[in-house]
Amino acid sequence: MATHTETIVRIVQAANQYKSSIVLKYNNKFVDAKSLLGLYTTLTDSGEHELHVHGPDEEEAKAAMLEVLGEHGLRVKLVE
Fold first, then answer.
1. CA separation (Å) from 59 to 15, 36, 65, 71?
2. Can you list the pairs that 27-35 forms with residues at least 24 positions away whose Cβ atoms lie under 8 Å?
3. Tell me, what's the pLDDT at 46?
4. What is the CA radius of gyration of the chain?
5. Do 54 and 20 touch, CB atoms closer than 8 A?
6. pLDDT at 71
7. Distance (Å, rounded) from C-alpha 46 to C-alpha 15?
């Protein structure tokens, strides 16, 4: 099982492969999924995060982010 730090690093690495804006929302906080510090302060194993993706490669980014977030046991709802 990955540590909290490993999970965050993998999410950031996945997000940074795309040009699209990738944002996670949790408890009315919006965090750039490309930001290590932002994820450290808001990512939690409990509750559901909203995933917002917008940009030129958003379809690929959505699929990749849902996969990496799911691999780490995070509950995510894709917001279209």
1. 13, 23, 10, 19
2. 33/65
3. 79
4. 11
5. yes
6. 92
7. 21
Q: How many residues does the chain have?
A: 80
Q: What is the DSSP letter of 45?
A: S
Give the Cα separation of 42 and 59 in Å (integer): 25
- For residue 1, the model assigns a pLDDT of 58
Q: Longest Cα pair distance anywhere in the chain, in angstroms?
A: 33
Tokens 């990955």 sit on residue: 2
Among 11, 2, 56, 58, smallest CA distance to 31 is for: 11
Mean pLDDT for the chain overall: 92
pLDDT in tens, 13-44: 999 999 999 999 998 999 999 999 999 888 87
